[in-house]
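Team,

Forwarding the record for the chain on the shared tracking sheet. I've put the sequence and predicted structure together so nobody has to dig through attachments.
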Amino acid sequence: MTDAMTGPEQHFRTCHLCEAMCGVVIEHQDGRILSIKGDKEDPLSQGHVCPKVMGLQDLHEDPDRLRHPVKRVGTDWVQISWDEAFDTIEQNVKRIRREQGAEALAVYVGNPTVHTPGLLLIPPFIHALGARQRFSATSLDQLPAMLASMQMFGHQLLFPVPDLDRTDFFLIIGGNPAASNGSIMTTGDPMGRIKAIRARGGRVVLVDPRRTETAEKVDEHVFIKPGTDFFFLAAMVQVMFADSLIRLRHLGEMVEGLVELRDALEEFTPEAVTDITGIPAARIRELAREFARAEQAACYGRIGTCVQEFGGLSGWLLHVINVITGNLDREGGMMFSNPPFDVVGMGPKGNFGKQRSRVRGLPSFGGELPTNVLAEEILTPGKGQIRLLATHAGNPVLSAPNGRLMDEALASLDFMFSIDIYINETTRHAHIILPPTSALERSHMDVGLAAVSVRNFAKWSPALFDAPEGAKHDWQILLELSNRLGESSTLGRYVKQGVQGAVERLGLDAGLDLMLRFGEYGTHAALAKKKTSVGRRVLSVLRPDKEGLSIRKLEENPHGIDLGPLRPRFPDALATRHRKIILAPQVYVDDVMRASEKMAQHVSHGMQLIGRRHVRSNNSWMHNSNRLVKGKNRCTAMLNPDDAARLQITDGQTVRVTSRVGSIELPAEITAALMPGVVSVPHGFGHGRQGVRMATASKKAAGVSVNDITDETFIDALTGMPVLNGVPVTVAPVMTAADREAGAELEAS
């Protein structure tokens, strides 16, 4: 922190508000932020920032942000001491665990967790809590992508990312990097890199039910009906086989299951899928041939491909297309980052179906159950009924399907505690809320997102401001809870050893330093390499590489250090039994029959609901910044003009969108950007619920929650994921008092 009455100073760090990880320069003086701008010397973003960057200041200064632990007393909140908060949590966790067993305990981890290095302490916390039922935003977001990586490459964290700086054909399916700034594709400046592809003579094609902000800046946009990405991808694969376009290149000796793949998808010809996808057969054939013949191509799919009825199959074929064209783990194709931390080595490989949910029997992934069963597991009586819930930086009331049911469920819990900075739609149900420090009051280094970067780099930033006296960082809260709640055996395994032990003894930065030093680029990298001789290992300790990475090295390079372009990692990184890419895992081959039946029985659904996001928000937690929510109302129901005319809906008129589980009412926005038969409502809104203590969000960005009408029972049968895109709905005009008044005035004139 700057001393009183000094001149302006500059602080360099990474913006943590989305996955782009843009470098910023924060000018500050006497504890006040004067300006926030892009850091032109940052090796990844090179000066690019988006409007969300102002949220760094707004979140830090937000008067609604909690700064002390609070306890709910009736409908009021009372400030309490940390000791009282920890004591209350410890007593209730141990009581419920003793009386009802670990099956009665659950934990939910939200999306913002990945944006803080404190995520390293999440595993020991969960194990100390002893919760048998675990949930996270994974099952509302990227689970199919992780499952495909586990099934085909042997590890759930082997995420392929597009090598944007060297590709000449970029195919995007169900992604909108102009709004998201890249998702499972950390880029710093995604649209700048996409523009560069076109500038060097390459092509960029987007397949999406909406002509998004990204679609405006690519070579071609192809409309596709919601929830049908698998059929489109399957037809592309079928064409590649039929036209002898399979080109494994360097992957030839690493692939198994090619014949099984061909046979499984043989019936999905372009002609067979045209009706269900809405894409002409000729265009599917052209795209398949263009992609297969491109020298360097990358097929990238994002959340639109995941949260649909065939999300699991779609995640599989996204990998398949890159493999059978020889574009996986190759320059200009889909590659794997070489991060400063060995995230793959640190994390478990993953497992699927090891556990089943009590009520519906849906499968777990990586030890977590699908979040769409959380409410029913709380509300359904019987052995294993959830009676205690812990949440970390999550808001499932707005992010999970059937939010009204989730509301009801959370209100019925015996005890709930949350680690969060806000009293929001979810945490208002907690009995105790533990708020961590502001992100600007702690050091920062991206641990998880570096593993999905399109260019290798490393950056660490010290805290900009001193933490207030008595405040606690998120990792300190998690460590305290782990120490209080865990059994001795749990602590011995998960807290007292390795990085966690270093964090407990010396602080989080010491743990990060340890990970850096023994990582691929670290001062002790030689010691970490399996094939290094014993003699050289000893020397690496005595004479570490002075140029290797460490916290000190990064402190000396505040803009970050460029570690170069992505490099091939296969076959060494493959974690399958025989170090082979499994092209046709049985779990997918078996599920193809379900898709085949759907195609044969296909009938038009009428209207289908899809979500959307905006560049000035990230889910629900940034709507309390006036600078980010001001202006035109973004919570609208987008409709195609043909649908609007058929339904007699005018622009701006209030409409009712209804699904099996309920209705929401919001203004219509008539636009040709939506294909006919589709209605789009943004996610993350719905701040008008009683008890929310986010004044700006409740007043200026209340809107309605799209997840009040998504259906927790409509799932991808393979993964158990909820369907958030392609939900059958009806849309009808609502005659409000203002509408009637306007009509009367029109009649009178």
